[in-house]
Amino acid sequence: MTSDIHHYDNGEPLNRSETLKRQLERDAAKHFLRLYEQMYKTPMRNIWHNEPSRPDISCHLNGKPLDLEIAHLYASTSEAKILTREIIEQVQGGESFITPSEKEQELLNYLSDLINMSSQKRLITALTRILASKAKKTYDSPRVWLVIRNASPLWQAEDFIQCIPYFQVAKNPFEQIWLLPEFDGSQPPIQLF
Fold this sequence. Notes:
The protein is of the alpha/beta class. The protein has helices at 16-40, 77-92, 102-114, 119-135, 157-163, and strands at 44-49, 57-61, 64-73, 144-150, 176-180, 190-191.
């Protein structure tokens, strides 16, 4: 475990893609913890990153360990590319070219399929895909919450609230599932499960 987003536990530097991933996860976790504390008047503290066998982020809720698996929700391939490029430029100081990995390319292909769907169907499909993908993983942790952060400016809190009745939560390893409806953490999280 480390609080450093630029290095592995052993001190080795992360590659650009992993640094970006950790930056996004850390920002999502910070927003979620701050908003959760405000809503429930209960402390959530000490963010640190985990190695791949564990959920992305660990913290403490009321002094007890809690792990967070973080996911980001995009509406389209173009949006994911544009937003990712902007974040890369912020993290890397202007260097914007990065070759997608096989998994990243799979995600980009999936996002391009979403373009032809209605906004509500696109949202439900995107949420279902994230949950299905994360539910396949096994987590070396007794308590894991999934936090999905909306990265799309096309969807706001109202869109998610309207879709909740249609969202089917399949069997999964998560104690709770939360959604951050705004990328910047300006809206309270919505509990999906």
